[in-house]
Structure formats: C-alpha cells, structure tokens
# Entry
Amino acid sequence: MAEKISFHDQIARNRRKSFVLVVIVFIVLIVLGYAISFAFSPEYFTMIMIIATIFSIVYVLGTYYNSDKIALAGVKAKKADPVIHRALYHAIDNMAIASGMPKPRAYVMESKNINAFATGRDPQHAVICITTGALETLNKQELEGLIGHEMSHIANYDIRFITTIAVVVGAISIFSQIFLRSLWFGGGNRREGGNIIFFVIAIGLAILAPIIVKLVQLAISRKREFMADAGSVKLTRYPPGMINLLKKIKKETKSMKVPGAVAPMFFSATSKRKVAGLFQTHPPIDKRILVLEKM
Amino acid sequence: MLEWIILIVVIVFIAIIIFSYYNRFAVLQNRIENSFAQIDVQLRKRADLVPNLIESVKGFMKHEQKMIREVSEARKALVSAMPSKDMAKKMKAGDMLQNALKSVFAIAENYPNLKANENFLHLQNELSAIEDKIAYARQFYNDSILSYNNLFRTIPGKWFAGLFSKKARHYLEIPTAARATPKVKF
# Structure
C-alpha cells in the first residue's frame, strides 16, 4: 500500500516539478537577459527581452515536442525490426502488459555496450531505444529487467522530467555561451552605456547558471535510477534478472560515445571513467546491486 | 453572510471529496476490466494458433493420435469457455490447453524432422511467447485488484465503498507450476 501511494505521488511530483522547472527557466532567462541588456545598452532593453522571450518559447516548445526525435537522432538509432529484433518486441510487449501501459515504440542503436534509454513526453509518445550489444548478450530475464527499468521511467513520468531538464540545461548554456562570447566583440568599448555592476552579475550568472543546473540534473537523474530499478523488479518479479544484468555491465571497460545531453538518460553510465560523486550521471553499479539484493 | 460562505465552502469541499473518491473507484475498476480484456486477447490468440499447430504436427506424429486429440479437445473447451464472464473458469481451460501443448512440445523432441520444420518452430515460439504474456497479464490483473482492494479496505475508501455499494474483488489464483521461480539458462 505504501508503495502504491509513493508511486502515484511520484508521478504527481514529477509533473509538478517539470512545470516548476519550465517556469524557473523563463525566470532565469529573463534575469539573464535583463542583466545582459543592462550590461551592454539599457536603451535596447525591450528589444533584447522580446527577442530572448520569443527565442526561449520557440526553443522550449520545439525541443519539448521533438525531444524523442532529437535524442534518437543524436545516437543514430534506427526503428527496431519486428523479425530481426523479435526478442526486443517480446520483452516490450511483456513489460507493457505487466505495467498496463501503452506499448512504447522500439528503436535500436549500434554499440557493443549493454545500455538502453527511454524518451518522449508522456507514455503515449514514449520510445525505448536499446543497444545492439544488449540484444546480443542478454538473456530473456535480463532483457526484461532492462526494459522493465525503462518502462518504469515512462510510467513515473521521469521521461518528461528528464527531457525538460535537458531542455533547460541546453537553453541556459546556449544563453550563457552567447553572452560570454559577445564579450569578445565590442563589449569593452560600449561599457559607458551600461552598468558595471550588472556587467559583473551577468558574467557571474552566465558562468554559474549552467554548472548549477547541470549538478541539479545529475543529482535528480541518479535518484531516479533506484526508483526505476525497483519498478522493474515490481514488473518482472525477478530480482536476479536485474542483478545479473548489472553484473554484466560492470564487466564492461569501454565507454560509449554519446552526446553529453543524452548520457544521463541511459540505463547505466555511458562513460567508464572514474568521476567525483557530484558529477556522476548514475549511481555506482555496486550500490544498485546491493539495493536489489536486499529486495 | 459569513456563515453562508462557510457553509458553501464546506459543501463544495465535501462534494469534491465524494467526486474524487467516486472517480478513483471508477478508474481502478476500469483498470481491472482492461486487464481482464488483456488476458482474454491472449487466450483467444492461443486458441487460434492451436489448429495450425495440429495441422503441422499431424504428418509427423502418426503414432500420437491420442495426444493430438487431447490438444484439440482442450482447445474446444477453451473456445466454449471464452464467452463466459468467469475468469477463473477461462483460466482453468487455458491452463489445460497449455499443459496439453507442453506434452506435444516434449514429445516433439523425439521427432528430429518436426523439430527442423520452420512452421512448427514458429508456432512453438509464438505459443511460448503467449504463455509469458498470459502470465504477465494475470500478474497485472492481480495488481489491479490489489490497488482496488487497498482503496476498498482502507479508511476512508471503506466508507465511500459502502456509499457507492462497491464490492471487494477476488484475485486470480496462479497455478503452482507458474509460481515456481523460472530457471535461468547460462
């Protein structure tokens, strides 16, 4: 019962957080725009703000509705073939039935590593993408564990949340980049029109905002993984499948080459390099195994 | 004036609570019916594939007439149970057919020609995939009943259940064979 409540709470919380995030992005963009325009030339304030607002609306809506296509294109994924990738379709069918959710579309990407990710804005527009390495090396129970994990991300609305966060991180770093680069061109000689304090604030914001948002994104995506692991076991009722899957991934040594924005969406860390806890995209595999073994 | 406002607020509040509980019962009931339909679909698919299977094994298994008859009788029993609303009865017929099919697949091991037959292999794969799907559909059915009964048995859901005259639902029993942990092959 407690589990059921937290499950539904989680969905509501994710939806609310996604909304709040979008609002925060607009505020950050406006503050950034405000600071930038004061730093350069207050007389162009309205025009800069109008451009910034239009740009951010187009950017946020565009990426929100096309996030799945962008992510799939980023990793060069292809639509799964019902005959060649029969095992994948079976696993997806089974997990969709077990969770009572619509079937997500299935995609396959080239990689020797075992990995997968889910994307889309809601369960009706969800996509699961899996590596060829996973299809070649996993047995049925492990594959269902992997798909069950992605299915829980979809059911929890993690995919929407993670997508909005990626959009936010993208938007803020674009704005910061534009601003910081503009400093190279004529920023100095026009300073008499602007305010030196705003100038310093703008530089500080432009440098700090992307880092802070990135750290928040990573912290959130690490937490989601434990939830989805538990959700997967709830669907398969078979923890050893997940544990064996994680053990197989642990043996891998080569990193996957994927765009940085997509990396936190994957089932397990795409980079095998050791990084400090705060900058990890995923919780350590040993910790995930430990949690599963306690179930 | 203030008393009226308080009264209206209280009435609206109560109405919202009643509506939301009514809707929660409706949503959970729909989920149960939907999962019921899922099992139905898979059972029907199983029944539909069996004639093809019989057709493909007939030529090879000349000495297993009794077994083939058992399969087709189990199928008949399932088909006649399908229109029934009683899921336990349907599941029982489905399990009977599943067991009959299992013995066909076991005996097929003795017929190398049959095992090399593509059509037979395809049907065998399809039928075992359906077996998985039925197991998962049944699990989701029981999960849906769990959510419904949780709402039904806890306060304040319990009071509203009385108000809307709702009844508790029963779980589907899972046969002992299916309950055993699946063996992992390495």
About this structure: The interface with chain A takes residues 31, 34-35, 38, 125, 129, 132-133, 136-137, 139-140, 143-144, 146-147, 150, 154, 181-182, 184-186 of chain B (CB under 8 Å). Confidence is low (pLDDT under 50) at residues 178-186 of chain B. Chain B has one domain: 24-167. The radius of gyration of chain B is 24 Å.
